[in-house]
């Protein structure tokens, strides 16, 4: 069975709520999930939380990275890079329509190039995520 690691910023109620929507999309397709703020306890302490996340990254077969905001959350960037280094597929989700402007290149409507080109799929809505997950479900 495919197990999905749902990565993204989790420091506000809004951020956690959006991650939970991503989790619901995955579960609606019959996928098992690891949701960091749900599946760890702050009382574990930061070292144990870190170890729990690393263990989950190794156990999961697919990562969905929420890439919202003006810059990708540093923890999410780490999780994405670690997962890629393991040779596993990553779907990036960004519903934020703000663009990056580079004087020599103009507007670039995506995330940092190191993040963007580490993704197997880049989707811009929960609907597109649903379709991407359906296609990758046979992993």
Keywords:
139 residues, alpha/beta, Rossmann fold, two-stranded antiparallel sheet
What can you tell me about this protein's structure?
Helix 1 packs across helix 6. The strands form 2 sheets. Strands 2-1-3-4-7 form a 5-stranded parallel β-sheet, with helices on both faces. It has a two-stranded antiparallel ribbon with strand order 5-6. Strand 3 (62-66), helix 4 (74-85) and strand 4 (90-93) form a beta-alpha-beta unit. The chain has 6 helices and 7 strands. The longest helix has 16 residues, at 13-28. The chain has a single domain (3-136), classed as Rossmann fold (3-Layer(aba) Sandwich), CATH 3.40.50. The protein is of the alpha/beta class.
Helix content: 40-55%
The total number of structural domains is 1
The CATH level-2 architecture is identified as 3-Layer(aba) Sandwich
As a percent range, the share of strand residues is 15-25%
Q: Radius of gyration, Cα only, in angstroms?
A: 15 Å
- Count of beta strands: 7
**Average predicted local confidence, pLDDT:** 91
| Molecular shape | globular
What structural class do the secondary elements suggest? alpha/beta
CATH class: Alpha Beta
Q: Biggest β-sheet, characterized?
A: 5 strands, parallel
> Cα distance, first to last residue?
8 Å
**Annotation field: number of helices:** 6
CATH fold group? Rossmann fold
Uncertain stretches: none
Provide the succession of SSEs: EHEHHEHEEEHEH
Strand arrangement, largest sheet?
A: 2-1-3-4-7
């Amino acid at each position: 069975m495919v197990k999905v690691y749902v990565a993204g910023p989790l420091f506000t109620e809004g951020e956690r709520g959006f991650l939970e929507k991503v989790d619901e999309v995955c579960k609606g397709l019959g996928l098992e999930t690891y949701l960091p703020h749900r599946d760890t306890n702050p009382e574990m302490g930061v070292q144990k939380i870190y170890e729990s996340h690393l263990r989950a990254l190794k156990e999961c077969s697919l990562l969905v990275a929420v890439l919202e905001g003006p810059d990708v959350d540093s923890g999410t960037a780490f999780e994405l890079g670690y997962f890629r280094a393991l040779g596993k597929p990553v779907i990036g989700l960004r519903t934020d329509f703000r663009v990056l402007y580079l004087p020599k290149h103009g507007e670039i409507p995506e995330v940092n190039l190191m993040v963007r080109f580490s993704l197997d799929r880049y989707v811009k809505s929960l609907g597109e995520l649903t379709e991407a997950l359906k296609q990758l479900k046979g992993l």
